[in-house]
Model the fold of this input.
Amino acid sequence: MPTSAPTAPRALLDAQRPLAARWLRLAVGLGLGQGVLVILQAWILAWVMNAVAFDGAGLDRLAPWLWSMLVLFAMRAGLAWAVEQAAFRAAAGVKQTLRDQVYRHLQAAGPAWLSGQRSGALAEDLIRGIEGLEAYYARYLPAMSLTALIPLAILLVVLPLDWLSGLVMLVTAPLIPIFMILIGQGVEGVNQRNWKNLARMGAHFLDVIQGLTTLKLFNASRREARLIARISEDYRQSTMQVLRIAFLSSAVLEFFATIGIAIIAVFIGFRLYQVALPLPDLIAPPQVSYFTGFFVLLLAPEFYLPLRSMGTHYHGRMEAVAAAERLAAILAAPVPALPAAPVRLPATSPLAVAFEAVHFGYEAGRPALAGLSLAIAPGERVALVGPSGAGKTTVANLLLGFIRPQQGRILIDGTDLSTLDLADWRARLAWLPQNPRLFQGTLADNIRLGLPAAGRAAIEQAARAAQAMEFIERLPLGLDTPIGERGAGLSGGQIQRIALARAFLRDARLVILDEATANLDPASEALVQQAIEALARGRGMLVIAHRLATVRRADRILVIDGGRIVEAGDHAGLLARDGPYRRMVRLLERGHTGPGSAA
Done:
């Protein structure tokens, strides 16, 4: 691992600090104001006690001072509330910006990168991981500044009054952060392991929930439940380990703070009783009055309080570093380079596509495409067939802009795809995969995904063209019928027709189909095929073919194998040759399947 890797989480945390700088400065300023009020409150209380004990002051003389103390209490409460609000706003701004940044990076990384990640772990990072940063910005950073400012302010007050007490504070105060850092070094590794266990548990739990039907059918649900129980137990043990260290560190910090206060109290007590301290005359401290001793003694706990609080909030920093480690890994994911000056194609561009000696590999030594060259003329329907792993899906991903060629180039009307404005390019495309994704909402909302500004009439027209109104009109609420996640409540054919309606609504110039009729019953297949025929009119179409019916209707068939086009022609012409396509068709006809078994 590179030596810079451990600094990545801290660099990420530091990079967000300017977003919270204004609110953090306000929180620190208000916190310092609280410290000043504490000093003033201690002074008034010491004066009142001295006046009562030695001057015999009555209530009439003390009333103004007591009322002033009540005012100070109210002011401190108000400042405490204001500090919390400022700290919350500082953390909220960072969380909102960072969540947006991570989400946009995931979008830029694209489906090719996301397909290799566990969705549960990513959800954990985006939700709990970013929420885990709140303690760092809302608690730790203000406490770090106040740890320096408030003790310094108290020292400036105490030293002129009693340099011996000030010296005790100076000597004992550094022991608290030193031991806090020593203990914190052990906590950091434990916290990171704890966070990884949490991400693992969340990811596995989501996988189990999504695959619960399969697990039930294979009688594997109990085994997975035992596995989740074991992961949960690992997480519990790591959490308890963190808590043990946290309690230990708190005890150590309290111990040193208590020792410091006790030493100050003893020294003040000796001098109040006129007992000579065992020190040389040259450095012997002066005697103190009751007022001075009581005032300093009241300030001593307040001197150590920010240091003890810093120890508590230091664990928030450790948690934030552990969470930032995963977020930094996400933000380090490679994204396709954007062109410096993106090119937009003319609105009337016919969209001719050409692959020129394109190479791409997902792993070293395992090329998906090896010098692929193909062309799709405007309005032409091209079918791409071949064995599994031949590179068909890679061709679609390259056209959609999810990945970039490692060698060669893709031309759109003579313009390199890598120089195009991706948003403008994708607006001209329609993509229909084997398993379209529908989202929770109404049918109209799901169709409108193809063109968010579309009106009701346009949505109905698109649904009718996609043969979807045939079942939509039978629903009680029609297009306003709500559906569940992934199209729950609809059949596979109905989901496919809703996805086709998106393509009709978008009126794209180039349509990419990853065999829309796969896994459909004959009746649904006929309806979807009829809609595809209507969609193909006047548009270019690339069909990743799995069924013979789709292949026969193509203007041109390209057979891909080993990342290269090995055969091209129409259905009749290819059958007349004794080539890969003819052998594939014969094999499929014997098995009564479409080319999907070989593709």
Observations:
- The CA atoms of residues 99 and 452 lie 24 Å apart.
- The two ends are 40 Å apart (CA to CA).
